[in-house]
Amino acid sequence: MKTIYQLAGVFLLAATTAQSCTIPVFRYALDRWRADFFAIAADEAWKKSEAGRKGGALIEKSSVNLLWSEDEEAGPEAQLLWAGTTAPVTPAALTGKDLEVLATSPARDTIAKRILAGESAVWVLVESGDKERDAAFAKRLRKRLQYLESVAAIPPQDPDDPASQLGPGPDLKVGFSMLRVKRNDPRERFTVRMIAGPLGKELLQGKEPFAAPVFGRGRVLGAWKADDLDDAGIDEVSLFLLGACSCRVKTLNPGWDLLMDVDWDAKLMEQGFASDRGDRETPPAPPAEKPGEEAP
C-alpha cells in the first residue's frame, strides 16, 4: 500500500515547519478548508443550449463548488474538469441528464449528513460487482473501523490555545463508518469517478473493490484497492485523520475534493447556534445509513 506520506512527500517538510495545533486533521479540514472548485469547460453555443442553461443554473447555486472554465478554446462538447486542472473527470461529454447527478447523489448526501453529525471520516467502498469479494472486503473494513472507534482517541485539546479553537459544528469525537456504493449505479457515476481520484484509472478499470476515506468538506485522502489496503493501512490512514493537524496548508496535504451541493458554512453555523442554546440533538442514523449499508 502506498502510504499517505508517499502520496504527498512535501507534507512531512511542511509538518515540521508549521506551527502545530491540537485540532485533529479531520476537524481542521471541516472548519477551515473550503472545497476546491470543479469547472465546466464549454463554448458559448453550449452554454446557451438547454443543457448549458441547466449547467448555468447549477453554477449559480452558492452551495455548489462548481464554476465555468476560463478556457476560451473549449469545444462544443462540455467537459467536467477536475479542480485546478484541465483534465476531464470523465472522457464522455456532459449531457443534460448528467447535470441532474453532477453535484449530488444519494451517496454524497449520506456522506455530508454523517460528517455534519460528527463522524471523523466516511470510508466509501466502491464495489467490484463480485459479491463474494465485495462482501469479504466490506467485512474486513467494517471490523477494523469498529476496532479503531473503540481504541482511538482525539488529541487533548487546550481551550486556552488560540491556535486550537474549534469552529461551530458537531461535538468532537472519534467516529468512522463505511458506505458501500455500486460501481454501475447510474446515480453514482460521477461519485465513483471522483472517489477514485484524478489518477484512479487503474482502480476504475480493475476488477477489485476499492475504498477511500472522505472527511472535512468532502475531501478524499486517497483511494486504494482491496488487496493494497490491509489492517495496518486502514489504521495508518484513519489515525492520520485523528492526529493533530501540524500542516494547515490544504494544498500541501494529500487528497482531492468531491463535487458536492452542500452549504457547509450554513450547516455548521446551524449546529453552532443549536449548541449555544443547549438544544442540539444528533438524530440516530436511519437504517440505510448504518455502517456497511449501501447508499439509498
Sum up the structure in keywords:
296 residues; alpha+beta; three-stranded mixed β-sheet; 9 strands; disordered C terminus
Structure, explained:
It is a single chain. The protein has 2 domains: 4-35 and 105-289, no CATH class; 38-100, no CATH class. By secondary structure, it is α+β, with helices and mostly antiparallel strands. Strands 4, 5, 6, 7, 8 and 9 form a 6-stranded mixed β-sheet that branches. Strands 2-1-3 form a 3-stranded mixed β-sheet, covered by helices on one side. It has helices spanning 4-7, 10-17, 25-32, 44-47, 50-60, 106-116, 131-151, 189-196, 201-205, 231-242, 264-277, and strands at 38-41, 66-68, 79-81, 121-126, 176-181, 210-215, 219-220, 224-225, 256-257. The chain is globular. The two termini are 31 Å apart. The protein is built from 11 helices and 9 strands. Helix content is 36%, strand content 11%. α7 (131-151) packs across α10 (231-242).
Mean pLDDT: 86
Assign an overall shape: globular
In DSSP terms (H or I, runs of 4 or more residues), the helix count works out at: 11
Major sheet description: 6 strands, mixed
Residue share in helix: 25-40%
Fold blueprint:
Elements: H1 4-7, H2 10-17, H3 25-32, E1 38-41, H4 44-47, H5 50-60, E2 66-68, E3 79-81, H6 106-116, E4 121-126, H7 131-151, E5 176-181, H8 189-196, H9 201-205, E6 210-215, E7 219-220, E8 224-225, H10 231-242, E9 256-257, H11 264-277
Parallel strand pairs: 1-2, 4-5
Antiparallel strand pairs: 1-3, 4-6, 6-7, 6-8, 7-9
Helix pairs in contact: 7-10
